[in-house]
Amino acid sequence: MTIKKRIFIVILLSILLFANGFLIGNLFSQTTSVNFNLEKPLSDTVIVSSRNAEAPSNMLNVSDIEVNDKQVILHVLGARISSYANTESMLPVLSENSNGIEIIPQIPEQIHAGDIITYEDNAGNFIVHRVIKISQDEQGIYFVAKGDNSATNDGKIRFSQIKYKTIALVY
Predict the structure, then answer these.
(1) What residues have CB less than 8 Å from 47, skipping those under 6 apart?
(2) What's the pLDDT tens digit per position in 91-117?
């Protein structure tokens, strides 16, 4: 084999290897959503069912929160610690390892769309979900709640069923 043929074969193989790598690289980038060089914004990681959820209402003024080197103090009357069952309905916001602080709401006006409430269902179970709608019918005001990681809402919830409103989560 002549030297010209060898050089031609080496150049041809080099071009084919480069083209092969280029095509495989493009194919990989089109079939995967992984991008190792860029941070993804939080909105890309939010579960689809909670994309339209409102943020909870603010129950605390800055003057109600005291922070120093040794402790954090929340000045809230009637507050209590809450814990959660492992149902996954409120992921990624709540899990069985979350620590909540809740109050007993006194009037319906203390509950807003976006708030996380604990209510008692007709079977006597305590459900922790986010309020997605507030409305009124012939029986009065009602709330509709849904788990952030749930496909369907919980139907009408009356104020008398609401036992607690979460005012803080501590991770």
Answers:
(1) 91, 92, 148, 149
(2) 999 998 999 999 999 999 999 999 999
